[in-house]
Amino acid sequence: MTQSPQKTGLIRIRGARQHNLKHLDLDIRTGEMTVVTGPSGSGKSSLVFDTLYAEGQRRYVETFSAYARQFLDRMDKPAVDKVEGVPPAIAIDQTNPVRSSRSTVGTMTELNDHLKLLFARAGQLFDRETALPVRHDNADSIYAELQRRAQEAGDPRLVVTFAVSLPASATADEVAQWLSASGFTRVQAEREADGKKLLDVVADRFRIGGAERARVIEAIEVALKRGGGRMSVHALPADEGGEAVVWKFSTGLHCPESNIRYSDPIPSMFSFNSAVGACDACRGFGRVIGVDWGLVIPDERLTLRAGAVKPIQTPAWKEAQDDLMRHAEAAGIPRDTAWNKLTPEQKAWVIDGTPSFKEGNWNKQWYGIARFFKYLESKAYKMHIRVLLSKYRSYTPCPVCAGARLKTESLLWRVGSKADADAVLPPEKRFMPQGVAWSRAQLESLPGLCLHDLMLLPLDRLRRFFDGLGASSSIAESPEPVPTSAGFSPSPAGGGQGWGLTALTGHTAGPSPQPSPQRGEGATAISLAEVDVLPLPLGEGGGEGHPANAGQAVSPHPNLPPAGEGAKSADAQALKLILEEISTRLKYLTDVGIGYLTLDRQSRTLSGGEVQRINLTT
Q1: Which of 249, 339, 508, 571 is the most buried (most CB within 10 A)?
Q2: CB 278 within 8 A of CB 403
Q3: List of residues 6+ apart from 610 with CB closer than 8 A
């Protein structure tokens, strides 16, 4: 007969699987000092505190009376098959005090705070529809871009135009009257959209190689003012039968190709702990409580007839199973094929219902398992319905932000160059923001990484990314300060907004005079009461009327002063300090051996040693 563990002086642990322990079997001698060692995250605390101490403390508390136990916290049994010979225990604990799911490695190390400053100052914006770069433009930057494009195209004849909307019923005489009253005589193109007639009115025509800079700047300023911050430049072909190529420009963070206006970046836009940047659906948590389809269909080897959809197999919901069988037969969905062998379209039919489903046709069309759960949620005031829902619900990634925690607009900003990004993250693994119309090829061709890409990178690779930025100075040069009228420089390569090409055949309506000061605000009064001479709306951001600062020095971001030598120096110094602070913290984190962590890792999932080393960085 074997002796009990207490008499032999042994503590026997069998099948320990708490946290990351993998069915560990262990014997520990009592009356001796036993030291448990191992690398961080290997399960030392899980064995000593969460298994051995927790079981000893739980058994000790169970010896108290029921009256005494009601004043103590409930202690759960650890995940272990058997623990024998454990005496009452005390512990000097090194527990992780963080319990909030909002706390991550990035927030604990304050790297998130530095990253949001970095994106607000040096991020590059890309349009959500066209994936084209969007930046602040003024008359000088547009002039520099026109010089570059005209040189590449062989100095074609350029026509600077702005768009004006008139009623669709406006006659040719009324159009001529409006042009005369406004001081213009030429229309480059005419089209209709949304029930209105759109005229591309000519501000000036020239070859930029032979035109004076003052004349070109004046034409751009007039077009921007009269076009509500938007203008087009038609590059005429050399031959008569060719088509003109249209270059579109606009002021502010507005993409003329998609007609979407963006707000200027502020640091809180890049923080999931701020209402400005946090996803509205999950409020910055990155996950929501929803239906877990792995629980709804736990065994994918089953067929629909054999009960693959578990919730509707009970007698109470047998009617839903009958509806599924009846409508599946009518729709040609296999009922005797295993779930894992159904096509994605067939699975979508089962879960989402008939694509043309109309509310109220519950008996005539298959409503889908998703609508079945919505029906249950409408009856959640009943206790048994709440119990049923709890069996099939869990935390799932937010469908709106795909777990990124941020709004779509915050994920349109990127930092770094394509070479910097390719060095640490393959293009096919980059995060595709939800709510964009980009193709995978467009995403992979974009320079830099978005904020969520940086959050998912291990710290050692993130350190290499920022070391590359500091070495190449690619981030300190972007965005390039807007040149002033005193001294301008070309736009960045591939930069600017709306660099799409549009073919359009133009026609003229007489000679166009060179723009003059008399063709300003005071010259727009006309006698046609029924003609709408307002500029076109500016898109999603709303119209801004005539910008008073067109052609003046403006700041690329609201928290930066106008461009100039002093502003350039201050901005470069600020970016340098941010990069140095980020690099210093990342270097320390990798030097202490936790370079495998990511900034998005929740703090409450860290081991005690990992928390202590992270705290040293602050």
Answers
A1: 249
A2: no
A3: 40, 41, 594, 597
Q: What is the DSSP string of 378-390?
A: HTTTSHHHHHHHH
Q: What is the pLDDT of residue 566?
A: 56
Establish whether the linkage from the previous residue to 535 is cis, with ω within 30° of 0. no
Q: Where are the beta strands (DSSP E) in 127-284?
A: 133-134, 158-167, 187-193, 196-206, 230-235, 244-250, 254-255, 260-261
Look up residue 602 and give its DSSP letter.
Answer: B
Residues of the chain with pLDDT under 50: 1, 476-563
Tell me the C-alpha to C-alpha distance, in Å, between residue 257 and each of 246, 325, 497, 501.
11, 49, 8, 9
Alpha carbons 216 and 160: distance in angstroms, whole number: 9
pLDDT at position 271: 94
- Which residues contact residue 122 at a Cβ distance below 8 angstroms, ignoring those fewer than 6 apart? 415, 475, 476, 478, 479, 575
Contact 242, 376 (CB under 8 A): no
* DSSP per-residue codes, 165-185: EEETT--HHHHHHHHHHHT--
pLDDT at 257: 83
Task: Pull the structure tokens for residue 537.
Answer: 């709306």
Give the C-alpha separation, 317 to 384, whole Å.
Answer: 13
Q: Is the dihedral of CA 161, 164, 168, 172 positive or negative?
A: negative
* Both tokens assigned to 581: 């602070």
Return the pLDDT at 480.
38
Handedness of CA 522, 526, 529, 534 (dihedral sign): negative
- Please report where in the chains the tokens 């009958």 appear, as a residue: 322
DSSP per-residue string spanning 85-101: SPPP------------T
**Residue of 396, 534, 517, 492 lying closest to 136 (CA atoms):** 492
Q: What single-letter amino acid sits at 156?
A: P
Which pLDDT belongs to residue 497? 40
Q: Which residue has the tokens 């210093």?
A: 584
Closest-CA residue to 272 (of 102, 94, 55, 56): 102
CA distances to 144, 249, 252, 512 from 256, in Å: 18, 6, 11, 25
Residue with tokens 């009064």: 525
Q: What gap in Å lies between CA 603 and CA 568, rounded to an integer?
A: 38
Q: HSE-up of 575 (CA within 13 Å, CB side)?
A: 27
Computed on alpha carbons and rounded to an integer, the radius of gyration of the chain in Å comes to 33
Burial class (CB in 10 A: 0-12, 13-18, 19+), 478: buried
Secondary structure class of 204 (helix, strand, coil):
strand
Q: What is the pTM of this model?
A: 0.64
Report whether 473 contacts 112 (CB < 8 A).
Answer: no
Give 358: exposed, middle or buried? Use CB within 10 Å, 0-12, 13-18, 19+.
exposed
Cα gap 334→326, rounded to integer Å? 11
Distance CA 359, CA 373 (A): 15
Q: Write out the two tokens for 203.
A: 């501000």
Interhelix angle for 459-472 vs 565-591, to 10°? Answer: 150
**Which among 169, 173, 162, 165 is positioned nearest to 193, based on CA atoms?**
165
How many Cβ atoms from other residues are within 10 Å of residue 464's Cβ?
A: 17
**Whole-number Å distance between alpha carbons of 453 and 448:** 10
DSSP H or E segment with residue 54: helix 54-62
CA distance 18 to 78: 6
Task: Report DSSP letters for 300-362, one per residue.
Answer: TTSBTTTTSSGGGGSGGGHHHHHHHHHHHHHHT--SSSBGGGS-HHHHHHHHH--TT--TT-T
